[in-house]
Protein 1
Amino acid sequence: MNRTFARTGAILASAALGITFAVSGAALAQTKTAKKAPAGKDAAAAARGKDVFQQKCSTCHYDSSDAKKIGPGLKGIGKRGTFTVNNNKVTDETLKAWIENGDSLMPPFKDVIEDNQIKDVIAYVKTL
Ligand code: HEC
């Protein structure tokens, strides 16, 4: 009786171990996938930037078209790599300066949204 009990115990214990290994294996696999995607951070910023865009920019700009609303449609600005308004190169810096300061036709956003929201919206605009 005692021996049977001990054996059952051993079998149960090794079954439990097997499950533990299987679970930690899955966890390891997950960590690897997360590390494999270096775009993850940019993608998260762009996703937050999309919200900012919808709240602060979409009244004047389309993001799904290059047609003019009040300002130029921003679809394709990232791929094209140049501003239509002044032919400047599209970089994080030029976008930041533009969004912060605006121009005679676009209001400045420096005091309207946070620095990190400007970064996020830049990440989003570059994907358009
Ligand atoms: C009140 C309307 C208005 C809002 C709100 C607005 N813009 Fe603009 N934006 C304009 C206008 C108008 C222009 C064109 C300026 C010109 O022709 O001189 C422009 C131009 C731009 C350009 C240059 C586009 C190109 O093709 O050269 C970018 C980039 C831009 N805006 C980004 C943004 C972002 C990002 C936001 C939100 C944070 C925003 N704008 C909010 C009106 C607006």
Protein 2
Amino acid sequence: MADNPVAAQCDCGAVAGPLGVCVDYYHAILSEEQADPQMYRWHAPVVCAYLLQHPARAHEKYLDGQFRQLQLYVDKGLDALLRVAAHQVARNKHGVRSGYDMAPLAAYEPLPPAGPPRHFRATFSGLPFRDGSFVSDGHLAYGHRIEAIAQATVESWRSIQA
Ligand SMILES: [Zn+2]
């Protein structure tokens, strides 16, 4: 971590918040959602958006699928994404080893070969963290903020395609 978090900038271009840069927020979210099943519903968009905003920390071969999952989420909402995710889990349990079933995601744009974008208009280090929690004002408000980050992520990646 940076010595001076106040002045620190994340590699996604975001300015650090009180908890630090995005990775600090990401770990705090993963920790809090483990004890909160309702908050955990947004786990998939959180992971996809975080990795797409910080692709140096991701496995390159999964990024395209994660970009498509995030587009599905922005397009059709959390329930649609959770259905696809549940289908993936069931499929993996049956020993299919080819990774993502791309069928529900095939309609979405592939990850642009250029990138990553240098700026996202909503970032993890910009999330409010009050009273030691990301959901102190309710899960719906939290969900809207995750959706805004997902939208910003898709928007910035799409903008570098041209
Ligand atoms: Zn960041």
Protein 3
Amino acid sequence: MRSASGKLYHSLNQKREEGDNVNINIQNTGWIEVICGSMFSGKTEELIKRIRRAEYARQKIMVFKPIIDNRYDHENIVSHSQMQAPSIPISEASEIYEHLTEDVQIVAVDEAQFFDESLIGICNDLADRGIRVIVAGLDQDYKGNPFGCMPQLLAIAEYVTKNLAICLKCGNPANRTQRTIHSSEQILVGSTDSYEARCRNCHEVLD
Ligand SMILES: [Zn+2]
């Protein structure tokens, strides 16, 4: 397994090396970034953007997603805007370790809310080993409650990006996901037409 003495540099440090006068020297350390928000807030798009930037820098990155998420594609993570990146589908968070290679610098996880709480310890462990961990997921379920392991991940993350969508009803900033069909299951995968972004005024929980 990779030691903490890797080749990871914080972007500020890369800037410093390029000649900028930034006196912050963060290196040989991992961290956790969380990208959260409602559906249609561009979380996966933001994740793919960060993956692309890392690829341009020739950093070794591994992307995981839960097998439960079979929308659009089985191997790629795909945003609503059809951006995509190759990924490894797994059913348990612990399977990340089975795929991890010595040289990996970044581990990304999409749709993290579908994993159980073991993902929290695993993200911490990877960051402790010097790996940059990027986690994207829904912070709230369709009732507006914190979703799965996301609240704990938000608490332990160094960096949090909370995206807002636009309320389909009134146009206000939206941080909730409205389910438009009747079902009491927390997870209803597959049809994005069963959901829309809503603000707190327009969000309602259907019975
Ligand atoms: Zn609204």
Protein 4
Amino acid sequence: MKRIGRRRLLIGALAGTAAVLVGAALTALGGGPGMGARPRGEAPSAGPTFLRLGEVGTLEAREGVMPMGRWGYVAGGAVNPVLVARRGDAVDLTFRNMLGAPSIVHWHGLEVDWRHDGHPSYQVASGGTYRYSFTVRNRGGTYWYHPHPMPGTAEQAYMGLAGFLIVEDADTDVLRDSGFELGVNDVALAIQDVRLSGGAAPYSPTMMDIMMGMHGWAFLVNGVQSPQIALRAGTNRLRLLNASNARVYRASVVGPDNRQLPMKLIAVDGGLLERPIEVREVLLGPGERAEVVVELGMGAYTLRATTWDPAPPRGGPMGRGPMGMPHVALTGRTVDLATIVVGERGEAVDVPAELSAVPETAPPSSGRRLSFFPAGHGRWSIGGMTWNYRDYLYRHMSASRDVEVWTLHNPSPIPHPMHIHGYQFRVLRRVGTPEMGWGLAVDGAGRLATDLGLKDTVLVMPGETVEILVDLDNGLRGQQVYLFHCHNLEHEDHGMMVNLYVED
Ligand SMILES: [Cu+2]
């Protein structure tokens, strides 16, 4: 199996990260006491490994392959490898589920036939396999893969099963050729929060956690707590992924003077923006991605975020507020996620002023309005429906005819990052944005910089109404059953997911 940039990783700009991760990966794959068995015949890897998606024969979900006994996907001897594909690539790989519970893989953001999309109808039992066969049809961009069984997504993602899936196309080639190199000055950083207890991070949500989503207090970047990321001076491209179960981040890079650096936002969920947008922070709900370009000099920097924690309920856990929910609130605080150490000279890169033509979406033919409500017993509903396999929130949606405006209304005190499978959509408007998003709007429609490209996940903040434009024609024909769900994974596991039935 071909490895991309492996040699460069070992000697290159990620050496610091690699140093942190070498030990971690060795311990994990070496199978220390209580760490689980080492995959047969596979050597430990050093640092993030880049693998061609089309050349991955088998992707295994395994327990105990990461530090703290956490879980991961194993391919080519690497844990949670960064998979790299080219638009148009044919993918034929086998998922093997070595977990103790059913699982299936979802290619988050990719437009694929629903039989290869990780719908839980296709989850396989422990020891089972599932064969994926699809063509990569998306624009170049930063996507990711993670488990999607029902229930169990929340636990499996929390335990560490997640990886990046980078798609390349002609537009991202131009950007790369301007001077970015994967693993050198183009790095992928997945942010996650967990609760540490006795050197492990077990998944054991309380009823309150199920209602609010599981919020941890220890922060991991690519599976490592408070890592040092070594970059070179000059221009760096950071691909940020919020891989957390529930936590929302306003992320920034802070300099030695403790001030937020100016950054260029160049890409979001569904690939490159039309042109770079100057920002100092990006708001990322669970599942969302943002690519930012930042200029670094010699010295130490901090990847920092404002995050929100559920405040203790007023009136005790049994106290009920509006909508029959516990009295909940979210309180912001600042956390340092990673240290960026710049000790080597690098290159300045001129980012093109025109990045890509984001495809136009046809004018809408119809509209739907959807609200999110608690449905009792820790469950949540979308448009009045909670998850079951047999029912569809919408039937007879027409791929060839329907372009829809969806008005997503969140009357609850909890943010809901809403994700649609099989499509990339546009964000049209935000109304009623709360403090969490204040100061981030960049146009008269209340949109954030991260709303200005193609999206597969949109954060609907407490009290907010967000309009999105969904073109049901993703180029795939035949009957499709796609999912629309909250990417707060406790919400997803507790009913906040529905089927959509799309036909020609
Ligand atoms: Cu939710």
